[in-house]
Amino acid sequence: MIGGGKANKAGARALGSGRAVNYSTSPLLASKTPPWRSRFLVGLVGLAFAGLLGRAIYVQVLHTEFFQKQGEARYAHTLELPASRGRINDRSGQVLAASVAVPSIWAIPKEVDADEGKRRELAKVLGITPRELQAKLNPEARFVWLKRLADDETAAKVKAIGLKGIFQDREYRRKYPEGEAAAHVVGFTNVEDKGQEGIELAFQKELQGRDGSRSVVRDRLGRVVEDIGDIVPASNGADIDLAVDSKVQFFAYQRIRDAVAANKAKAGSVVVLDVQTGEVLALANFPSYDPGNRQNLTGDQLRNRALTDVFEPGSTMKPFIAGLAMETGRVTSRTLVDTGNGRYPFQGAVISDTKPHGLITVHEVIQMSSNIGTTKLAMQMPAREMHEMFTAIGLGQRPQISFPGAVSGKLRPYKTWRPIEQATMSYGYGLSASLFQLARAYTVFARDGEIIPVSMLRQPREHPVPGIRVFSPEVTRELRSMLQDAAGPGGTARLAQVPGYSVGGKSGTAHKQEGRGYVNKYRSWFVGLAPINKPRIVVAVMVDEPTAGVYYGGAVAGPVFSQVTAQTLRLLGVQPDLDVKSQIVANQKAVPVEESF
């Protein structure tokens, strides 16, 4: 220990004197380093350098494009420049649907402030629960919509909260100024601005346009710093000009809505056609919906009943049977038909009228709506002729219009008809059609025997469109006289008269079929034209399941026809062709003649 202390002191003196230590004499460094170890270390350094060089070549030479895109993704963004969806206008330019810019709220979840108080406040403003908001703000998501197409008030409240990581953009939202009145015509779009119903769906390609793009640099807060690259401008959608007159449409909707309520009915529809151009001036249904607010929307509200609901057309077919019998020379309007005591045994069944008519003319068969008289006319001709005539007026065929959902109805091949079926088809049972099909079929009477094409779009033509001939003009004029009397004092639809204008038409009432049988429920309708000597419009009205005690078509649908026809003719500037007599209005209070159905 003493010797060791001396040695330490000697070493300290040596250091203090500044003399160098000879490490070569140190026992720790006495052994030499093996050559392979230095080579191994140099090799490791060389391999590491080669790896770095290879990675640099891979990144900067071989896969430059991929890694450049990955880098740009951190700061460069492509913004979509949405195209404005085209407008839908009525025939006079009144806007039925248009796009307006509204705020949409989105977030970058990993950047959203974790302040629980602000998050609860945000959830309340957005109308969702805090748990739902938490699920949306999944940190693994890079982007999430919180509320699309919000209103300005909601957007202002979200901005006032000041929660970090929450952003707003402007998107387009459709507005429908006519609301429920034009809903089944215009339809609506979804949140992606894609058409779902009506004209919005039928003309989706034309309306949508083409989106543009803009490449920008954004900072970490999502703010645009600068533009990079070229801007591709958006191409806005084309406007669609409809044949519909918004005033006629609104009035028709009001009248059918009121009729459904007054008759405690299930539903109703109205179709108005311009017989000069084939344009659809109105197509209204009730119940309806607000296209701009579709919460709690039901299937009944969505159904465009005028096009999608088919029913047995009943007595509205009788004028066509009379026309075919006269066109083929089998009868004239003055030919007598024996309808007997109102009951006619036929093929094991009994065809009946609501009351005995006895010996009446063909003209009176239509005026009094006799099932027996119509049957006797129909059984004079082969089934093939009836089938060809039904086909010519559009039954059993889907209407050729630019509109989704139109149906063809039912018309079986004539070779399958039994005699009793041919008889019942003559007065509208055993076949089916939509209200729209009936309205178009009645253009035959309005256009001197020609059936015309119809269109939902505004037509540039000023002159009458060409049609396909079904009856001769002479026979058609006789039929118009029958229809005028059917809607007159001695007919089944006195309530369809219009003060100041001559009208003609045919009412119909039919039991509804459920399963394989008929039930004690009815559809009531009236299809007519005006003015009778020079028709301008065809109006078809249907009321489904009236339960207020009256169900005949003349009493239920006739008044709606009268009101819609009067308003439409005035709006079109058609001059009255009759003296307005006070007794006409008084006569409308009379109980209508019961029709056969």
- How much of the sequence is in beta strands? 15-25%
Principal-axis shape: elongated
**Strand element count:** 21
Number of helices: 23
Largest sheet: number of strands, sense, barrel closure: 5 strands, mixed
Give the terminus-to-terminus CA distance.
Answer: 136 Å
Question: Percent of residues in helical segments?
Answer: 25-40%
Mean pLDDT over the full residue set: 86
Rg from Cα: 41 Å
Write a concise synopsis of the structure shown.
The protein is of the alpha+beta class.
Write the topology of this structure.
Blueprint (H helix, E strand, L loop, with lengths): L1 H15 L18 H28 L1 H10 L2 E6 L6 E2 L5 E13 L8 H11 L3 H7 L7 E4 L4 H10 L4 E10 L7 H4 L11 H5 L1 H5 L3 E7 L5 E4 L12 E2 L4 H17 L4 E8 L5 E7 L12 H4 L2 H4 L1 E2 L6 H10 L8 E3 L4 E4 L2 E4 L6 E3 H6 L3 H8 L4 H10 L26 H8 L6 E2 H7 L1 H4 L3 E2 L16 E2 L3 H14 L17 E11 L2 E14 L6 E8 L8 H4 L1 H14 L10 H6 L10
Parallel strand pairs: 2-8
Antiparallel strand pairs: 1-6, 2-3, 3-4, 3-5, 6-7, 9-10, 9-21, 11-16, 12-15, 13-14, 17-18, 19-20, 20-21
Family: Belongs to the transpeptidase family. FtsI subfamily.
Subcellular location: Cell inner membrane; Membrane
Protein name: Peptidoglycan D,D-transpeptidase FtsI
If you had to describe this structure to a student in words, what would you say it looks like?
- 35% of the residues lie in helices and 20% in strands.
- The strands form seven sheets. Strands 2, 3, 4, 5 and 8 form a five-stranded mixed sheet that branches. Strands 10-9-21-20-19 form a five-stranded antiparallel sheet, with helices on both faces. The protein has a three-stranded antiparallel sheet with strand order 1-6-7.
- Helix 4 runs antiparallel to helix 6 (152-161).
- The protein is elongated, with a radius of gyration of 41 Å.
